[in-house]
What we know:
Layout: H1 6-33, H2 37-49, H3 58-68, H4 71-92, H5 99-113, E1 119-120, E2 123-124, H6 126-138, H7 145-163, H8 176-195, H9 203-227, H10 233-236, H11 267-275, E3 283-285, H12 289-296, E4 307-311, H13 322-326, E5 329-337, E6 340-348, E7 355-358, H14 359-369, E8 389-395, E9 399-406, E10 410-411, E11 416-425, E12 433-439, E13 446-450, H15 452-455, E14 467-475, E15 483-493, E16 502-503, E17 509-511, E18 514-521, E19 533-539, E20 543-549, E21 554-555, E22 561-569, E23 577-584, E24 590-596, E25 613-620, E26 629-639, E27 648-650, E28 661-668
Parallel strand pairs: 3-4, 5-7, 10-18, 21-28
Antiparallel strand pairs: 1-2, 4-6, 5-6, 8-9, 8-16, 9-11, 11-14, 12-13, 12-15, 15-18, 16-17, 19-20, 19-27, 20-22, 22-25, 23-24, 23-26, 26-28
Amino acid sequence: RQEQGWGKFFHWAVPPLLLGAIIVGGFYLPFMLHPHFQQTATYLGEKRVGGDFPYNNLADFFLRSTFYSASYYILLLIFALLAGLIAQLRRAYPRRPWLVPLSALTGLMAIAFWPNLWRVGRANLSLVVFTLIAGALLLIRAISDERGLLILWFAAPALLYFFLMLKVHTHYYVAFPAGLLIVGLVLDRAIGALQRMRARRWIRPACAIGGLALYLIFGYYIYWAFIQHDSEYHRVYPRSRLALYWMPCGDHPPGGGYFGFPYRTAWKAIGGLYATGVLQGTYSSDQEGLVTNWYTRGALRCPEPDLFIVARDVHEPHEIIAGVVDGTYTPDARVLRGGVPQLWIYRRGTEAPIVDYTFAQYAAEFDRELSAPIFRVGAPLDEVFSPPHPMKARLGDHFLLAGWGLDRKAVRPGEQALLTLYWRTLKPTSVDYHVFVHVGREAEIAQQDSIPRCGQHPTYRWQRGEEVVDRYLLDVAPDAEEGGHSIRVGMYDIADGERLPITDSQGQSLGTSLLLTHLRVGGARFEMPPIPHPQEATLGGKIRFLGYDLPSAEVRPSEPIRLTLYWQCLEEMEISYTVFVHLLDEEGQMWGQRDVLPHDGRLPTDLWMPGEVVADSHEVPVAPDAESGSYTFEVGMYNALTGRRLPVVRAGGERLPGDRIIIGGIHLSK
Length: 670
């Protein structure tokens, strides 16, 4: 239009195009290179675009749009667009002011009301009419650049969604911004024409009153469908239908692809019940996972759950599991809103009386504790392959455990912890391997043995290079002993029970079960106990040594010496340090030794909490051939992986030689 050379064109076009390419490419290049992109491409190509385009989605657009907005509003937009089309074509072709506009109008009506006339085989050629009309508008030289860009902005997505996609659902909204701007220009021109009439003094108040009336009519539909919650518009339609509004879809709106309609079936209360610990365990529901995951904030949803939650007035219910029908699950609780049950909670094997919870109480808990700007809502909404604790442990030839995560370090007896495992498939297998998670010696604290992803993604379906985020809810036994308990994982063949061998990144064998971390059962103690022999030093700035208790300084060979060490945690630690207690003679020769994690391995330092005081008892054996005389203990901590001791600094700031604390006064006599 500016009639400038290519040099000038590239001068102003290349920078914004380059910037746009960087922004768009920054997302789409990694997206297309991701191993799972093929699944997305298949979904978009086969299910959304389809293989028989072009199509004609005008009827679907009209029915779906008039369900989301008042039908009168959509009709006003359509008539205004048609009026603008006629006016623009009349000005563009003044020799035949009605021939071209009426031809265009007739063509649009033909593809809208008689779409099947345009079928050729399985394809629908309605887009030819639309393309000719849009081209006729864009090729008019008299049209302004601004109006040309508006038409292009509207026509491009309209062409895509009306004619080139099989399943559009609600994505028609992409064409609305430009369409609304065009409608605004048309209405502005119409009002200007009215103001030029003789009775123009009445035009402005009439337009204001008419505009306000239309606003109220159109807006009340939006209020009724999306804002008020007494009648959930989409979920209970057509019971929620208003007599004032004509609904082209009748009692049956187009299926699929709805979002944005409010829920009032008290799911906030379920989130609050989970947050306060009243509800525990896996669950499932007759409502779709995207809804329930949002309100439960990531509680584990499984096909064979501990709880099954049934919602009132579900418009498109998901499957009710067989256990609810055959009596395996029985009603355990209800959530009441306004005195009316909105949700029924079924529990496996319960015989207790039904408990009623009020929506107001637990919805307030949800709003207070869970309505934060950043939160975890669980799969599939935020399932990201980013292990908090990366590792590389190979299980057999097929799987790599790339890391793990634990939602909490400490629980009370009877509570739950969520363990997340991050798997990567090295090569496919036809074997159905199960994952086991054992907490404590011989799994006496908690245990999970199941197909990955809560039984929904068996290993024989895993593809090469696939990354699997796999979660396990660990029910800690009510009588679990306080202290730290090991968490071990592995895989076994369900057919014969044989476990897969595990190796580290260097190929060293780790056995058939892998120690991940420790789970602490019980709370921390922060009160300072009486310490018989106070003595202060800090170890690596992480731990403070407070002193010791030595009940008897007189010992005999072959009898263990009981020593209690008092530690205080100064900061959280990721490393589990080993305590060493060595019995030395006056020459520095060792005659007794105990190297062990605190509390006999039950309370590793990576489970300690800042400020916590730990009384750590040891029984140190004495060599039978030890001679009578004076002895001392050397005490400290070290990293078992590196053998490096934590630096020991006394209260005055002096670093102790050998990074050890000396405890004397021990006498050995035969």
